Amino acid sequence: MYRLGRAEYVHPYLLRNLNITHPNQVWQIDISYVPMKKGFMYLTAIIDVYSRFIVGWQISNSLEEATQTELLNESIERYGKPEIINSDQGSQYTSKNW
Fold it and tell me: Which CA distances in Å does 36 have to 17, 19, 39, 41, 69?
């Protein structure tokens, strides 16, 4: 079930009218639900918006925010820190952990 995160952790949208000109300027992270016979698996992917390169991905059987944070930290360690990380305002991305 999708739910909006806590208001104190909702951040402004930074991409409006932004000219994306180089790698590591903007990464986009999102979760897709993969239906299974007995529930769901969750595919999280991070893409560099400029190059369209997948900088990280994982499959999990839970939506806990620690899973996405771990993936992000691994991606930053491997490719460097992006200037902006863009996501929806779901509970995983509007939490104290994130």
Answer: 39, 39, 5, 7, 24
The CATH code of the domain that includes 37 is: 3.30.420.10
pLDDT band at 97; cut points 50, 70, 90: low
Question: What are residue 80's phi and psi, to 5 degrees?
Answer: 95, 165
**42-73: pLDDT as tens digits:** 999 999 999 999 999 999 998 877 888 899 99
DSSP assigned state of 30 = E
Number of domains the chain is built from: 1
Domain extent for 42: 19-86
